[in-house]
Specification:
Blueprint lengths: L2 H14 L1 H37 L6 E5 L5 H7 L11 H8 L4 E15 L21 E8 L9 E6 L9 E5 H6 L14 E9 L8 E16 L6 E4 H12 L18 E6 L5 H11 L2 E3 L2 H43 L1 H9 L4 H44 L11 H18 L1 H8 L3 H5 L3
Length: about 450
């Protein structure tokens, strides 16, 4: 029997029971659609996350301080430490000149005295806090270049960031809300409130109370989560610099909470050009003589968890495909029982066992190929629909949309995988049909 004859008989076997064939193909199509959609969504998520990480920015940022390098880090990086150095413009130029560095953002911190408003929320807030508002508190103001906020580990939770040149606008963290016993889940309540802050200065001539402050009124325009430096108030770098310089003009060296570091900058946030460059850049900065820290472990963990999600989603789709293949095996077993006489006739006119085996295997493969093609197309459309919904949400939140990563490998895998599984599922029924004796098939005793 030729392959052409076997294909014709297999096609006739599929179309003979259209209802059963439709349900079997549908089960394969649904499984293939689920597998294709899940893999496409998982691959798109992984690609987008890694793409954002690879662009640099907060997760590719390296914090640099003027402290002496960590001996353990130096040993691991095989670096030779230099003496501790101040962080100033020379340090910025030296680090910015490293080949794998994309940008350097200075950070200035200033210890301040803050007078919160009472009540500490807007007048239109439905519920006023019942907790007592402290008359004043000491806290650190973190100053950064607001024009480069996208490169910093700063996440806007409510409102907006202060204007880059403003001296009257600040943002606060959720730690500020917790200090005032406000609900951190309702950050909008403090937007627009006035926060007075004072830069302390020591005057020896004042005797027992030498501390005086230069006061300024500011408006809270945003609530953020920030890790540029420890502190609950975020402001433009000029504002923090003015406060620090006022404190530095003290007649005596401020002590304790108000001590001022000698470096022009409290720290630097160095942005590497990609994830793969972080380790190399840290080693180079250590050799210059500064201590560094970076979220390398966090990035590695993100990549591992993304891989786990891919495996889980792929496993769910694969299980559905295996269940569909069992349906193919069941359908073929039923077909063999119904077509016993046909099998006997084929054998009576000279068909060999391998010819019968070939017919049923081709029939199973046809069901798998048709179901796989239809299901893969449906899965791609489902992924497109999900992507459209996600993009609508992202655009509504002011974020960039994602590009659906419809991999040709996933499409080919959906069709080929369905065909191979159907072929494997039809092996046992096909062998059973091939071994059926002609007399038994014809019902001859």
């Amino acid at each position: 029997m030729s392959w052409r004859d076997a294909l014709a008989l297999a096609r006739k076997g599929v179309t003979r029971r259209l209802g059963r064939a439709f349900l079997t193909v549908l089960s394969v199509a649904l499984a293939a659609a689920l597998l294709t959609a899940l893999l496409t969504i998982a691959q798109t998520g992984r690609t987008e996350v890694l793409r954002q990480l690879a662009k640099g920015g907060p997760l590719a940022g390296i914090k640099v301080v003027a402290a002496a390098p960590d001996p353990a880090q130096i040993a691991n990086d095989n670096a030779r430490p230099g003496p501790p150095k101040d962080l100033g413009d020379d340090a910025v130029r030296a680090i910015a000149g490293l080949p794998e560095v994309d940008s350097v953002v200075p950070v200035v911190t200033s210890r301040m005295i803050f007078l919160p408003p009472d009540p500490p929320v807007r007048a239109d807030t439905p519920k006023q806090p019942s907790a007592k508002v402290p008359r004043f508190f000491f806290e650190t103001m973190v100053g950064v270049d607001m024009n480069k906020s996208s490169l910093l580990p700063v996440t806007l939770l409510a409102g907006r960031l202060p204007s880059a040149e403003s001296l009257t606008e600040v943002a606060v963290t959720t730690g500020y809300l917790e200090r005032l016993e406000l609900n951190p889940l309702e950050p909008e309540a403090v937007l627009g409130t006035e926060l007075e802050m004072g830069s302390p200065r020591v005057f020896e001539s004042l005797g027992d109370q030498p501390l005086r402050a230069q006061w300024q009124r500011t408006v809270i325009v945003g609530v953020v989560a920030q890790e540029a430096a420890p502190g609950q108030v975020l402001a433009p770098i000029q504002q923090a610099t003015l406060g620090r310089d006022w404190t530095r003009q003290s007649d005596a060296e401020p002590e304790g909470d108000f001590s001022i570091p000698t470096s022009p900058y409290s720290g630097l946030v160095v942005v590497a050009r990609g994830l793969d460059s972080i380790g190399k850049v840290r080693t180079q900065i250590t050799r210059i003589g500064y201590s560094t820290s970076a979220p390398e472990n966090l990035i590695a963990s993100v990549q591992r968890y993304l891989r786990v999600i891919e495996i889980v989603l792929a496993s769910i789709g694969a299980i559905a495909l295996v269940i569909a293949s069992l349906g193919i095996a069941s359908a073929l077993l039923a077909a063999i029982r119904e077509r016993r006489r046909e099998i006997g006739v084929l054998k009576a006119i000279g068909a060999r066992d391998r010819d019968v085996l070939r017919i049923f295997l081709i029939e199973a493969s046809l069901i798998g190929a048709i179901g796989g093609a239809v299901g893969t197309l449906a899965g791609a459309l489902i992924a497109q629909a999900v992507g459209s919904v996600v993009n609508g949400y992202l655009i509504g939140q002011g974020l960039l949309p994602i590009d659906l990563d419809l991999s040709p490998l996933i499409i080919a895998g959906g069709v080929i995988g369905s065909t191979v599984l159907a072929f494997a599922a039809g092996t046992v029924p096909a062998r059973r049909a091939a071994r059926l004796p002609a007399k038994e098939a014809m019902g001859v005793v």
